[in-house]
Every structure is written in C-alpha cells, then in structure tokens.
Design brief:
Elements lengths: L1 H27 L7 H17 L4 H24 L5 H20 L3 E3 L6 H12 L1 H11 L11 H20 L3 H11 L1 H6 L4 H27 L1 E3 L6 H15 L5 H24 L8 H34 L1
Antiparallel strand pairs: 1-2
Organism: Metabacillus fastidiosus
Membrane topology: Multi-pass membrane protein
Pfam families: BPD_transp_2
Length: 321
C-alpha cells in the first residue's frame, strides 16, 4: 500500500507541472484550452523519438518544452488572428496534434525501456553518491525501514524542479507582462483601453501554458518508459481536477497560494486515484470515471458547505433579532 501511494506521490509531482499549465490557461487567461490533450502527447512524442535517436535526454526534454510552446502559440494565433472561438480553436489544435504526434513518433507507441532517460541517469548518479543507502540506513535506525522506498531520486529531483517552476511562474506573473496577462483574463476590455496588445499576450500565455503541459508529458513518457498516441486523452480533465481540488483545500487569495494549491491538488488527486484503485470495486479501466467523480465532488461539496454556512448565519441573525 505504501509503495503504491509513494508511486502516486512521484507521478503527482510530475503531473503538477501539467496542472500549472492548465491553471495558467484556465484561471489566469480564462481560456478553455483543449490543446492540452494534444500538447501533452507532443511533449512525450518529441522527447521519446529524440531519445531513441541518441539525443541526450535533457536536451530531448528541453525540445519537448519548445514544441509545447509552439503548439500553444498556434492555438493562440487561431483564436486571435483567425477569430476562431476559444473552445473551437483548442479542439482544432488538439485534433491536428493527434496526427502530428503520430508523424513525430512514426507509430502509435515508442518504447523507452532500453534507453537512457532523465530518471535513469539521475538514479545512476544518485547511486554513485550513495544517498539512497544513507537514507535507508537512517530510516532503518528509527524503525521505519520497511515503509521507506529504496530510491528517492525521482521524488527529490521533481520536488526541486516543481519548486523552481513555481518560483519562476510566481515571479513572472508579478512582472509587467505577467500582470498584463492576468489583466487580459480578468477584464480584456480594460487592458485594451490601455493600448496593450491583448492578442500577443494571449498567444504568449497559451504558449507558456502548453510548454508546461508538454514538459510534463516528456517526464511522464520517461517515467513510464514509453510514449503513446493516446496517453493525452482526458488530460485537461485531470488538470482541472488538480486545480479545483487544490483551490478547495488551500484557497486562492494570492498567486503564491494559488500555484501552491495547484501542486497540492495534483498530488492529492493522484493519491485519491491510487486509493480508489486499491478497492476491488474499481479497475484501471475506471480511471476516467474516478476522475469525473472527483471533479464533481470537488465542485459540488464546497457549494453545499457554503450554503450550510449561509443558513447558519441567517439562523444566528434571526435569533439575535
């Protein structure tokens, strides 16, 4: 059980990068971007095919980031320059990316079992330093050796990476360009009155959003040791579930708090799914159903709680009167 939860925590940290991208388009830009389902696979496909062809995994992952940025920018151009509805522009790009991703990979699935990835390289460096053995001995000395995984490399590296991404994103959203992007999502007419180029801001915002999504896709492909054309199906729902769960648990009073909420939401989502799959009632084919139920619960429960609080306030006022 602990091993499964720890694995879910690992994958949750990777998916948190994708959730931050969804947060940027969905909450900051107020743009329902369905490109996510395609750009996630684009990141996985680009990194996988480059690794298979002998490119350094770190360079391949950076290339995936760039590919995601381009995909997001094209969605932005379709909307701003082509005057296509936001939802439709995302759907069109998602459909186009399915064929593009197949072209990139050359087939529906690219295995990475025999290839060096970012995680295998980091794990080998980790093993040479003897950090895992030291941590294992430390936990065994306090009687927790049976509950501690044998390798910490993925968790620690992803924690460091997600913290860096969060800090950079928080800083960016407080810069002049970042504030302008936030203003576009809040009140586009107001920012237009200040002679700001809203089209460029939307394109850049969507580019960054999908760059993070593709970045996450590249890591997931290397984590799972394969890239598949269908691995991005429903990814937008997973991202929204992470955002909604995080907002319900942590809140969104500040940007720093909101991005932290998204990261926590992504991890909590993966843990909930892992625990749900441990029940005999569910199997791996029920993943989408579990996701839908989690999103519904995250949307409905806060509203019910707010109504209950409002009823209590009204009853207290009546008693005081």
């Amino acid at each position: 059980m602990f091993t499964a939860l720890f694995g879910s925590f690992e994958s949750g940290l990777i998916y948190a990068i994708m959730a931050l991208g969804v947060y940027l388009s969905f909450r900051i830009l107020d743009f329902p971007d369905l490109t996510v389902d395609g750009s996630f696979v684009t990141g996985a496909a680009v990194s996988a095919i480059l690794i298979v062809n002998g490119v350094n995994p770190f360079i391949a992952t950076a290339a995936a980031l760039a590919a995601g940025f381009i995909a997001g920018c094209i969605t932005g151009i379709l909307h701003t320059k082509g005057k296509i509805n936001p939802l439709l522009s995302g759907i069109l790009m998602m459909i186009a990316l399915y064929s593009i991703n197949l072209r990139i990979m050359g087939k529906a699935n690219v295995p990475l079992l025999q290839e060096d990835t970012v995680f295998t390289m980091i794990s080998s460096w980790w093993e040479k330093l003897g950090i895992d053995q030291g941590m294992q001995q430390l936990f065994e000395s306090i009687g927790l050796g049976a509950f501690v995984p044998k390798t910490w490399s993925i968790v620690i590296i992803m924690l460091i990476l997600i913290i860096i991404i969060k800090i950079v994103l928080d800083y960016f959203l407080k810069t002049e360009v970042g504030l302008a992007i936030r203003a576009v999502g809040d009140n586009e007419q107001m920012i237009t009155s200040f002679s700001a180029n809203t089209d460029t801001l939307k394109i850049v915002g969507l580019g960054i959003s999908n760059a993070l999504v593709a970045f996450s896709g590249a890591f997931i492909a290397q984590y799972n040791s394969f890239s598949d054309a269908g691995m991005g199906i429903g990814m937008i729902v997973i991202g929204l579930a992470s955002v909604i769960i995080g907002e319900a648990l942590v809140g969104t009073k500040t940007i720093i708090r909101a991005t932290l909420a998204v990261i926590i939401g992504a991890v909590v989502y993966r843990l909930i799914v892992a625990m749900a799959l441990r029940w005999n009632f569910f199997d791996t084919g029920d993943m989408k159903l579990i996701t839908a139920c989690i999103v519904i619960a995250a949307l409905v429960i806060p509203q019910v709680m707010d109504k209950q609080k409002e009823k209590r306030r009204k009853s207290l006022r009546r008693r005081e009167v």
